[in-house]
Write a structure and sequence with these properties.
The protein is of the alpha+beta class. It contains six helices and 19 strands. 21% of the residues lie in helices and 34% in strands. Strands 11, 12, 13, 14, 15, 18 and 19 form a seven-stranded mixed sheet that branches. It has a five-stranded mixed sheet with strand order 2-3-9-4-5, covered by helices on one side.
């Protein structure tokens, strides 16, 4: 049987917000079974909460945010990716600010903190969504397609006219060890001229080479270089893992994402949910010991 999980003890972290440039503190607190993921704006009077549910999610051009119409928490996708990847079903996330810090642009910092807190197995079977029939949504060049499956499989494709990116593809079969080994380290990326323009317009007030892969017309500007040659498409999988978890439960489906972004991901998931194409089921599959092949890890 596969049982629900939370963390074993509270843990906190701090970082700078790239939209506000403010220091933001976050606390993770364990929750009992069937509570789900709950975000709390601890910096506001009465500490209002937003449960993780697709109806409270907005996909923008460059990030995913939660909003109930009154309060907002931006840039939740990397944190949700880490929770999804590690199999955390129940957690209270107290945020002392209006965004989640970007840290190094990957999910590694969240992964480290969750592993530092440890895991607690809860006395309830894990719940998931099962896809009932295929579904496709397009948005300009982007396309995302869902096929029924007994597990979560992601096939991602990106293409950029840059000598270090070009056309990249990645196939990911979800398992916590596989997430740690193949996906969690992949950083977000941006182009120097676009980032400078957004800073001039005041869209970004923080951010540096420590928060993302930054490229000029020919090369990576970060002194340490890339963590893998296809780090760019691996980050697309990382983002999609986070966006998929905005359903509140893990999804059993084969997902093909071609040139897609947060807005398309969230619009497609809302359509799936409200069209009744998802069925909630209890996870009763046996969990076998799986030993990964050797690979350098970044934590």
């Amino acid at each position: 049987m596969e049982y629900q999980r939370t963390i074993a003890q509270p843990v906190s972290l701090e970082g700078e917000g790239i939209f506000t440039s403010k220091k933001i503190k976050i606390e993770f607190h364990p929750l009992p079974e069937n509570e789900g993921i709950i975000f709390e704006r601890a910096d506001l009077p009465r500490s209002p909460q937003i449960p993780l549910h697709i109806d409270y999610v907005v996909g923008s051009e460059g990030s995913t945010l939660l909003s109930d119409g009154k309060i907002t928490i931006n840039l939740v996708e990397h944190l949700l990716s880490a929770l999804h990847g590690l199999g955390i079903d129940n957690l209270l996330i107290r945020v002392y600010g209006e965004e989640i810090p970007l840290f190094d642009g990957s999910a590694l910092y969240f992964v480290r903190k969750i592993r530092e807190a440890g895991f607690r197995i809860l006395p309830a079977l894990r719940r998931k969504y099962r896809l009932l029939k295929p579904f496709t949504m397009e948005n300009g060049q982007g396309r995302i397609t869902f096929f029924p499956s007994r597990t979560l499989i992601i096939k991602a494709k990106i293409e950029f006219s840059h000598p270090l990116i070009g056309l990249q593809e990645c196939i990911y079969r979800h398992h916590p060890f596989e997430y740690l080994r193949e996906i969690s380290f992949a950083r977000t990326f941006g182009f120097k001229n676009l980032l400078e323009e957004r800073k001039r317009k005041g869209i970004l007030k923080g951010g540096s080479l420590s928060n993302a892969i930054v490229l000029d017309e020919e090369r990576v500007l970060n002194p340490e270089g890339l963590r893998s040659k296809d780090e760019f498409v691996r980050h697309k999988v990382l983002d999609l893992m986070g966006d998929l978890y905005t359903l509140g439960l893990s999804l059993m489906a084969e997902v093909h994402a071609e040139f897609s972004g947060h807005r398309l991901h969230i619009e497609a998931l809302k359509s799936l949910y409200h069209a009744g194409l998802l069925e909630e089921v209890e996870e009763r599959a046996l969990t076998f010991l799986w030993i990964p092949k050797k690979r350098k890890l970044f934590f």
